[in-house]
Design brief:
The complex is a heterodimer. Chain A is built from three helices and four strands, in the order E-H-E-E-H-E-H. Chain A is α+β, with helices and mostly antiparallel strands. In chain B, helix 2 packs parallel to helix 5 and helix 6 runs parallel beside helix 7. In chain B, strands 1, 2, 3, 4, 5, 6, 7, 8, 9, 10, 11 and 14 form a twelve-stranded mixed β-sheet that branches. Chain B contains 15 helices and 14 strands. Classes of the chains: A alpha+beta, B alpha/beta. Chains A and B meet through helix 2, strand 4 and helix 3 of A and helix 1, helix 3 and helix 9 of B.
């Protein structure tokens, strides 16, 4: 299983989770975990996703998620999980 | 499973505290390019570099996307060219032809710098070594991406004072030939004692003769991350201070290890080392000087600076060693002046002098780095400063280096502008009392007593 972390940060508005999840499901990216908070009007979401059956390349995911973010007015970033594992686990 | 605060911490480091992978450096051995025919040497070198390094830049960019971390530079280090060109080059101009070939190859593969226009002369100079050293001013004038380094001393061999004297002249000539760009050529020329074979950082990177055919070395940086972490340790004792630096260094180095492993896989080139160096840039919040200030100094240069820097350098190494299977290169804290806004401020405030910097180099990871001095400084004075710095390295069994820039046409109080990562530097006064008689003695300084460990 190849896991990645998606972070979404920006001004809160209706349908952010829906839009991101719709894009992911269309591309067969499975969501394993979601956590979300709003701090003084700012939306902050982190998702752990499984890229194993992703219909598109990683490169495309990076670009298209960025575009989805622009459409909703938030910043969406995807990173392979290894960087967090390496930094915080011995 | 990774939790929310860990994800936020990592991304905070990247987005706000300038954590980056400073360089992926591909080391390439050119030993198989040796020939007695100069054109053949150049052709072989060009082909080898452009074949082995053709995917280096694209690989760096791909890894950067995968982990969401900037990889600032992609570089190449080469077998010291004095060894490679020795059989073919009969004049300094012949070496310049190789330099131009290297520059062309570097442009072709899109790297930021190519290092290894070097000679290792800690005990003696071959004819080829001397020719290469004499060719440096012209080579740095006529090329854009080449970095040159000369190792003139070591703990095992002593200091080659003939080479030190020659390098004083070479630095001066390089300054003269690149004077229209504030003697910028000297920013790409470094003189070493105990130079490591696997350093990924410029201008001192070369691919040592003890290395394999090709190797990936990665340099990570992140002074901003250490500074930020230390803000939380204000008022705490030295134990807490040191633990904080160590833990932060560990985290930063782990990223380097990950990137190095990934690059090694993708390029099918063995992984060499991770070099964790706190390497500042002129950007605010990316400064080693600010760490020293956070530790408790008004400006770097104030009493206590050497002790604070010693502590910092040592804790960085301790944290880094645990984090990577192979740590190498220089690993520690760099203290260049022009590349660090905090250091520039300290010079302008009158707090930091060349002499204090010299003391600091006894405990930092390298040496007198990116220091602009008056253009009318004599070559023998430059040699004297080099000799002092080399002696510190030789006796203390550490790497030391000199990257001095005599800015032709400018004097104390004026500013040299280099641009980009190299920044700008206030010109610092130099002690101009004579050392000609000392420098003009021929031969070498013998190896120190503690080198006899056999």
């Amino acid at each position: 299983m190849k896991k990645a972390i998606i972070t979404v940060v920006g001004k809160d508005t209706v349908g952010i989770i829906a839009k991101v999840c719709t894009y992911l499901s269309e591309n067969k990216v499975n969501v394993l975990d979601i956590s979300q908070t709003i701090v003084s009007g700012y939306f902050n979401m982190m998702m752990i996703v499984d890229l194993e059956n992703s219909a598109v390349s990683y490169d495309t995911l990076v670009k298209e998620l960025e575009t989805v973010g622009e459409e909703i007015g938030v910043i969406i970033k995807i990173q392979l999980e290894d960087i967090f594992d390496m930094m915080h686990r011995i | 499973m990774i939790n929310r605060s860990e994800i936020m911490e990592t991304n905070q480091m990247i987005e706000k505290e300038n954590l980056d992978v400073r360089t992926i450096t591909l080391g390439i051995s050119l030993m198989d390019c040796i020939s007695t025919d100069l054109n053949e040497v150049c052709d072989k070198i060009y082909t080898k570099i452009t074949t082995l390094a053709k995917d280096l830049v694209a690989t760096g960019e791909e890894i950067s996307k995968e982990y969401g971390i900037p990889i600032v530079n992609k570089r190449i280090s080469l077998t010291p060219i004095a060894l490679v060109g020795g059989a073919a080059c009969k004049t300094p101009e012949d070496f310049v032809q190789i330099a131009k070939t290297l520059d062309k190859a570097a442009h072709a593969v899109g790297v930021n710098f190519i290092g290894g226009y070097s000679a290792l002369v800690s005990k003696g100079m071959t004819t080829a070594d001397r020719l290469l050293m004499e060719s440096i001013p012209q080579a740095l004038k006529e090329t854009e991406l080449i970095c040159s380094s000369i190792n003139v001393g070591s703990t095992r061999c002593g200091i080659n004072m003939d080479a030190v004297r020659l390098m004083g002249d070479v630095v001066k000539q390089t300054a003269e030939l690149t004077k229209e760009k504030d003697s910028f050529g000297c920013a790409k020329l470094v003189i070493f004692c105990n130079a490591p074979d696997d350093n990924p950082f410029m201008a001192g990177a070369f691919h040592g003769v003890t290395e394999a055919d090709a190797i990936i070395n990665v340099g990570v940086s992140g002074p901003g991350v250490v500074k930020k972490a230390l803000e939380k340790a204000r008022g705490q004792n030295f134990e807490v201070l040191c633990e904080t630096i160590k833990k932060t260094a560990f985290k930063i180095t782990r990223v380097g290890q990950l990137v190095a492993k990934r690059a090694s896989e993708m390029l099918n080139v063995p992984f060499g080392i991770v070099d964790l160096s706190l390497a500042p840039t002129p950007a605010v919040g990316d400064s080693v000087a600010e760490i020293l200030q956070e530790i408790g100094l008004e400006y770097p240069g104030a009493p206590g600076t050497t002790a604070a820097l010693a502590l910092l350098n040592d804790q960085v190494k301790k944290g880094g060693v645990m984090a990577s299977s192979y740590v190498g290169g220089l690993s520690g804290a760099f203290i260049p002046v022009s590349e660090d806004q905090g250091m520039i401020d300290a010079v302008n405030a009158g707090c930091l002098t060349l002499e204090k910097l010299e003391a600091m180099t006894c405990v930092c990871s390298v040496g007198l780095d990116m220091i602009a001095i008056p253009g009318d400084t004599k070559a023998t004075t430059i040699s004297g400063i080099i000799a002092d710095e080399m002696a510190i390295g030789m006796i203390n069994q550490k790497t030391t280096a000199c990257r001095l820039i005599p800015v032709i046409g400018k004097g104390v109080g004026e500013v040299a502008e280099f641009g980009g990562l190299l920044g700008y530097a206030p010109i610092m006064p130099v002690n101009n009392f004579g050392c000609d008689v000392f420098v003009n003695r021929t031969g070498r300084i013998p190896a120190p007593i503690h080198s006899f460990k056999n």
